[in-house]
Each structure stands twice: as C-alpha cells, then as structure tokens.
Amino acid sequence: MKNMELPSYNIKNNMAIFLERSFMMITILETSFKHHSHLTQDFTIFPITEIEQHQIRTENKENFGEVFTPAALCDKMILISKPLPDQFNIDLCCGMGNFTIRMLRYFTNTFPDFNLKSYLENYHWFNELNPENVTVLLDIFKNVQINLLVGPAEKIKHMKCDSNGIFLKGIWHWNGKKWITDVEEPEDFDKFFEY
Ligand SMILES: C[S@@+](CC[C@H](N)C(=O)[O-])C[C@H]1O[C@@H](n2cnc3c(N)ncnc32)[C@H](O)[C@@H]1O
C-alpha cells in the first residue's frame, strides 16, 4: 500500500475523537472510583486545591499500611513530578488507583491529543498487594485492558520484560517464587501472601 500523508483535517478529527473518548472514559472511571471510595468531590477539576473529605479505611491500616492519599495531595504531587503521557509509568502500591485516576484527569485536561485507552494499555502498570483493592481496581478499570502486578512491590525487580526491557503486559501475580499470568482459579489469590 502506498504510504500516503493524511490530510491535516483528518489528523485533527482523529485527535478530537481520541480526546472526546478520553473525556468520556475518564468520567466513567471517576464515577466508578467515587462510587467505591465514597468521595464526593468534583473530580473533573485539575488541580483540586481544597482538601475535602477523604476515605481512611482503618481496618486495613495496620496490616496493609492503607491510608488513601486525598485527591488534592495527589494533584500537588502530580504537578511536582510532571508525568508525561508518552513515558512509562507504574503506580506502585496503587490501592484503588487514585493517583492514576488523578493523573489521567491531568493528562486529559492538559494534552489535546491524549488517548487514555492507548496510554493505559501501553505505557502504564499498576501494582497492589491487597486482593480487596485489586478487586475494586479491576472493577473501576473493567473497560480497559490494564497492566497489573498483583503482589509485593519489592518483587517487581523479578518481573519479566520484553527485548526492550519493558515489562510484559497483562495481569500478573506473584506466586511466592515468580510472576505468573493467566491465574484462573480464585484460590490462587492466596498465593500472594506466600512471599
Ligand atoms: C498508603 S496506601 C496508598 C494507596 C494509594 N496509592 C494512595 O496513595 O491512596 C498503601 C497501599 O499499598 C498496598 N501495599 C502495602 N504493602 C504493599 C506491598 N509490599 N506491595 C504492594 N502494595 C502494598 C496496600 O494494600 C495499600 O493499598
């Protein structure tokens, strides 16, 4: 096939479609995240400047060190670290993915050609240990094929990479010895704790 240059109006149209889709997708993700976290803030704003209510689930504070970061603080950290949509990223100890949700809102509001789905599928990885949070995370991001490492962050150095040194895509679990994929039996989830 002849390699033809696309007319600029087509490129603009494609960009507009990606952005419109990204706006739709981030709104769906935020709605689901708010449902699970019981937050009521307006998540379409970036940055959120006022620290309003945030969820602290004290029952998981002792065993998983679980205290969720308020959105306003996530936003401050995002503004300081300046992540980019064409750089690889991993949301370590992600909980329900609140840092990622806020970063996706930042990308959507900031970069006119941001393609949320493509970013999540190709540049982004999550990591979380607590199966309860993993279940919520998978529900929030159910419309996207996320990359997720379920297991201890300290074992990520053993994760398999492709020939370019990039983590393999998909959902992986730490079985106590190595990262495995295609875990079908729910009871395999218990293996997370054998490390
Ligand atoms: C303080 S919460 C932070 C959650 C989220 N990143 C935030 O900022 O709100 C810590 C999270 O790390 C998870 N976690 C604890 N130890 C971990 C480990 N060794 N590897 C991966 N995740 C871990 C907990 O289950 C919890 O969801």
Describe this protein's structure.
By secondary structure, the chain is an alpha/beta fold. It has one domain. Helix content is 38%, strand content 9%. The protein is built from 6 helices and 5 strands. It has helices spanning 8-37, 61-64, 71-81, 98-110, 116-122, 131-140, and strands at 89-91, 124-128, 148-150, 171-174, 179-181. The protein has a 5-stranded mixed β-sheet with strand order 1-2-3-4-5. Helix 1 (8-37) packs across helix 6 and helix 3 crosses helix 4. It is globular and about 45 Å long. It starts with 7 loop residues before the first helix and ends in a 14-residue tail after the last strand. Mean pLDDT is 85; it is low at 188-195. S-adenosylmethionine binds next to helix 4 and strand 2.
Short description:
Helices cover about 40% and strands about 10% of the residues. It is of the alpha/beta class. The chain is globular and about 45 Å long.
